[in-house]
Description:
Blueprint: E1 2-6, H1 14-23, E2 26-30, H2 33-39, E3 46-49, E4 63-66, H3 75-85, E5 90-94, H4 101-110, E6 119-121, E7 125-130, E8 133-136, E9 143-149, E10 154-159, E11 169-170, E12 176-180, E13 186-192, E14 194-200
Parallel strand pairs: 1-2, 1-5, 2-3, 3-4, 5-6
Antiparallel strand pairs: 6-7, 7-14, 8-13, 9-12, 9-14, 10-11, 10-13
Amino acid sequence: MNGVLITGGESPEREFIETVLKRADLIIAADSGLNAALKMGVRPGIVVGDMDSISMVIPWDIEAITFQKEKDETDTEIGLRILVERGATHRCIIGGGGGRLDHLLGIVSLFHRESAPDEWYTRWEHIIQVKGMLKLTGLTGKRISLFPLGCQICRMESEGLQWPLNSLSWKQGSMGISNIVTKDPVRITMKKGRLLLIYDLYRNERP
């Protein structure tokens, strides 16, 4: 089951997430993510959070799950948790770009968890959790950056990167910044652990 969580902050152009939205079985908006969703022409099935940043009356056909402002989870955490509870096995976050650095790092921290998101689209980037084998097409010439996730040491192999990942052993604090995709498709196979992969949505200059 494919689940999508739309948050506040800057979102990508619709063209980059059209396939994700078409495949979604459940779409949840986290608080001001409802504003972002409706602006994109997306009608979520559920909105969650303390509702302090929503600038409209919530439409009657959208399920609202309201929480107190003083709580132990962020609205994004709540939305991700409810996606898991509702059975979403593939979870994608849309939005959250720009804005406060602590909010940005808060979303990054979610990828270290056992029930991590699988993907995240910001205004400019596509972020992917790499586990098992990942194959991506259409990225020749692009830069990708990689970071270990969780506490486990990462070991991996790659095809199609200027600087191969073979025989490397990474732990928390390690990183691979601005590697270059030289061949299509690019493949990364995890022998142990998980990685966070980031690449720019735009091929040349950002608009």
